[in-house]
Amino acid sequence: RGVLLKAAYDVSSFSFFQRSSVQEFMTFTSQLIVEHSEKGSRASVKEQEYPCHVYVPYGSLAGVVIADSEYPSRVAFTLLEKVLEAFSKQVDRIGWPVGSPATIQYTALDGYLSRYQNPRDADPMSKVQAELDETKIILHNTMESLLERGEKLGDLVSKSEVLGTQSKAFYKTARKQHSCCAVM
Q1: Are residues 88 and 157 in the same domain?
Q2: Which segments constitute the V-SNARE coiled-coil homology domain (predicted)?
């Protein structure tokens, strides 16, 4: 059975009265997922409407990220790798099985949690992807406006052709009118 060594929660999006229940749900679900995961595996499991990302590297540590459905799984696994690597370097392995989350001296978890709230800011690939998506939208809008301009230019060309035809007709009529009169 897995032992919770350290946890960090951001339950600010839930009402005050739901927060403790949500934390209990997250703790229970995390332990359950870790128990059913094999060493050396990464997996994403959906519990209710929340995707739970678990990473169990070779060793005795495991990490779980529970996020909303919009959070990219690649960023969650990057976060898990960084946290587990930093934790294993900073916290002596002797204290793992007997320690409680309150006694283990590892303060970087809250920093990781706040830094990774917005995957765009934390992950360079997400930032590049977001910039590409924005560029694609701008190009799409530019193409639409160019097509509209092309249609407007087409309208102007056809109107100028009609105007040219009308001016030729006017010129011919004016010439006929002028040719019948003698000027003295």
Answers
A1: no
A2: 124-184
Range 101-106, long-range pairs (CB < 8 A, 24+ positions): 101/4, 101/5, 101/6, 101/7, 104/5, 104/6, 106/6
Phi, psi of 155 (to 5 degrees): -65, -40
Same domain, 94 and 135: no
pLDDT digits 0-9 by tens, 83-132: 888 888 887 776 565 555 656 777 788 888 888 887 777 777 777 777 78
Type of residue at 98: V
**Which residue is listed with tokens 């799409």?**
140
Same domain, 71 and 116: yes
- Asked if 60 contacts 68 with a C-beta cutoff of 8 angstroms, the reply is no
How far the first Cα of the chain sits from its last, in Å, is 120
CB burial class (10 A; 0-12, 13-18, 19+) of residue 30? buried
Instruction: Evaluate whether residue 2 is within a structural domain.
Output: no
Report, as an integer, the average pLDDT of 30-37: 87
Same-domain check for residues 114 and 74: yes
The average confidence (pLDDT) of the chain is 80
Element containing residue 42 per DSSP (H, E): strand 41-47
For residues 140 and 176, give the distance between their C-alpha atoms in angstroms, rounded to a whole number: 54
**For residue 164, what are the domain limits?**
123-184
Q: Is residue 11 part of a domain?
A: no
What count of other Cβ atoms lies within 10 Å of the Cβ of residue 122?
17
Q: Are residues 116 and 39 in the same domain?
A: yes
